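Figure 3 (text version): structure tokens given as input.
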């Protein structure tokens, strides 16, 4: 009998009996202490975004396309011709050239 009462005292405020109350108090604290969030007004990553976009739309995109084309030509020179060896560099070039503005406008429209 005495052992049961000691076990019940050890549970304290965090016991199973008080779990719904504890969850409600925690949720209420989160709701009351949460600050407002404004989408689209943060400029933290603008510098990195602008540099990355300029890189992909400029010389970086050309380098990626040329490397992809060279790998496709090397694959064809090895004797195993596949349409994917031509289509992949073309797709990479199109994706690098036009993908950045499409993704940027889609994200801007959503936000």
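Below: residues designed for each position.
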């Amino acid at each position: 009998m005495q052992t049961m009462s000691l076990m019940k005292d050890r549970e304290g405020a965090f016991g199973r009996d008080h779990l719904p109350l504890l969850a409600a108090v925690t949720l209420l604290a989160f709701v009351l202490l949460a600050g407002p969030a404004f989408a689209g007004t943060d400029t933290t990553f603008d510098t990195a975004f602008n540099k990355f976009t300029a890189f992909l739309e400029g010389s970086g995109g050309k380098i990626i396309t040329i490397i992809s084309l060279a790998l496709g030509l090397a694959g064809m020179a090895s004797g195993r011709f596949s349409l994917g060896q031509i289509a992949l560099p073309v797709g990479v070039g199109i994706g690098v050239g036009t993908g950045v503005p499409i993704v940027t406008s889609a994200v801007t429209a959503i936000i």
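Helices lie at 2-11, 19-33, 46-57, 59-77, 84-110.
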